Amino acid sequence: MSSLLIRNIRTLVSASHAPRHIVRGAEMADLPAIDDAWLLSENGRIIAFGNMTDCPERADTVLDATDRFVLPAWCDSHTHIVFAATREEEFVDRIRGLSYEEIARRGGGILNSARKMQAASEEDLLAGARARLREVIGMGTGAIEIKSGYGLTLESELKMLHVIRKLKEESPIPVKATFLGAHAVPLEYKDRREDYISLIINEMLPVVAGEGLAEYCDVFCDKGFFTPGETDKILKSASVYGLKARIHANELGITGGVQVGVANNALSVDHLEYTGDEEIEALLNSSTIPTLLPNCAFFLGIPYPNARAMIDAGLPVALASDFNPGSAPSGNMPFVISLACIRMKMLPEEAINAATINGARAMELENEVGSVAVGKRANLMISRPMNSLAVLPYHFGSQIAEKVIINGQVV
Ligand code: NIG
Ligand code: FE
């Protein structure tokens, strides 16, 4: 038994005795909070919280949070943190004027990462991904989704998924695994893409599912990558094995990706830099969560997704980092929240809900993390002294979390 008591919390954020599993539309601006609060955890779980008038007397560890906010840890529902090498040479090519799509057409981009992945050892991949995981936990991430998709051969996709499985076993935070064999069509399949899709469906999916290596199946459904028809075929095959859909869509154009995600009951459709009324309409009649990745728009210089239109229409928006070597080489969730507020006009409360409870729901972890509630994991942050919650996105780039607590222990 080990217990942790946090006392004199200026404001305990996203704390509620009524269960909150997802927030949509106007509710996204509500962040239930308790001022002058305490929180007690035991064996890694939140067991009670309240106002200082009835604070418990003792615990194994007692922290004082005078002038500080306590928040649920970030739930990052979209990352690619297993990769063999960084791609800063493409970053410099883009500074010189090439676009992300031009680089991809030349065999750079995802295919560049795939070549390096095929040559990498499982040990090196694990060491790199482990360091990234440790880094993002230090920035307050308390649950994470990780994708394959830089393998693009059976052997190499399995290598990535084995690394993700190891991370899952050793990680102090929940990890969800996604199979993304359909991330790009390898060069050797350029003129026979149906054969690559058959490889995914007939050879990769059965092994991935048979070994229990992934919970989800993703497809990069976009201009120059996979068509809605191909995406549909892959997702339907995945669902036969019990792998739920979560896809990349509408990053490079209006392509029908959102609709194909919704039609396949995707848990989330991610990116959505190009989203019109029809996409919003499709999402409104579904349980699919639009997940926005502003680090990618920031880094590639593409349009930001229209979060305002989505929230104002009543949708539940989630925010994630997309940490990957090509389009978003950062897993810094506080920066994601700053961009969401500064460039996408989300209110601080909306952005925090999007990066916590809605991200948790997008990973089916809403009963485990994403808010302060009895029974959930004590995955929390204690801020530095702040006058209001808006300071968090306002001081973009600053380390706002003074302490990160995972399973009731300061890390
Ligand atoms: O989410 N858009 C597709 N996949 C990744 C980027 C992959 C890469 O460039 O390595 C993304 O942005
Ligand atoms: Fe991605």
Description:
This protein is an alpha/beta fold and 411 residues long. It folds into two domains: 112 residues, Urease, subunit C, domain 1; 287 residues, Alpha-Beta Barrel (TIM Barrel), CATH 3.20.20.140. Strands 6, 7, 8, 9, 10, 11, 12, 13 and 14 form a nine-stranded parallel sheet that branches. Strands 1, 2, 3, 4, 5, 15, 16 and 17 form an eight-stranded mixed sheet that branches. The mean pLDDT is 97. The structure holds N-(iminomethyl)-L-glutamic acid and fe (iii) ion (FE). N-(iminomethyl)-L-glutamic acid (NIG) binds next to helix 3.
Task: Note the main sheet.
Answer: 9 strands, parallel
Helix/strand class? alpha/beta
CATH superfamily of the largest domain: Metal-dependent hydrolases
Bound ligand species:
N-(iminomethyl)-L-glutamic acid, fe (iii) ion
Kindly estimate the percentage of residues that lie in beta strands according to DSSP: 15-25%
**Integer average pLDDT:** 97
